[in-house]
Amino acid sequence: MMARILIGLIAGLIFGVGLALSGMLDPARVRGFLDVTGAWDPSLAFVLAGAVIVSALGQAWARGRATPFFDKQFDWPATRPVTGRLIAGSALFGIGWGLVGLCPGPAIAGLSLGLAPIAIFAAAMIVGMVLFTLLPVRAR
Fold it and tell me: How high is the pLDDT of residue 55?
């Protein structure tokens, strides 16, 4: 159990450092990527491409193994159909990302900068997650 926590902590730290080094903690850079008709900043595309390549290689390597290093079995995500709820949630996520320039990963990593706008966003995000968990199951 302790090894899993330690591996998760190390992975999260690497992710956060990667976000910081790539400039993705700067909401203006993210909004610049989304501004395709103005002063477009393609740097996020390179960060995303690098992340997809590393993830694909890691997943291909992991799928070739019988078991993970620090667990009894792999917990692969289930394939689920595209639903209206998924589309609505994705649209809400995208709108928020475009307006603010932050998503959950950079928001949490950005807390290390001590900037009030990032802290406000992270707090609002956490409140939204808590409110979602309080919704009745049938409404989900």
Answer: 92
